[in-house]
Amino acid sequence: MNLLRRVASLPPAERLLLLRAACTVTFFRLGLSTVPFSRLLRLAERGLRGSRSAVEPDRAAWAVRVVSRRVPHATCLTQALALQALLAEGGRRGHLRIGVRNEKPGRIAAHAWLELDGRVLIGERERSSYLTLPFPK
Question: Which domain holds residue 92?
Fold first, then answer.
């Protein structure tokens, strides 16, 4: 079954959630190339829309993962910021975490994930090998 048929077969609420996630992931993907990070972080913390439309956290994480496969270079940071914004629109406050690890001599790698209520919603897979950086609350 092709992608459009699969999306069309979803309930309307899930199609809308995928559309919201696609717009949000794309916004943060482009924003990371053009906007100061501090401003993006503020936008993610308050949400992109003026209205408060709550979304179940696990469904929002699912939608961000699904659409991120189709958005070129939607990194872990892009996904964590997008999910944080979607949750903030519903009045939930996720916590962005960034970690680093040594790769080779003179090189480090970074990874971002989002936590809510002490649980990792997105970015869990690789997070255990990274040292979490202190990050402003």
Answer: 3-132
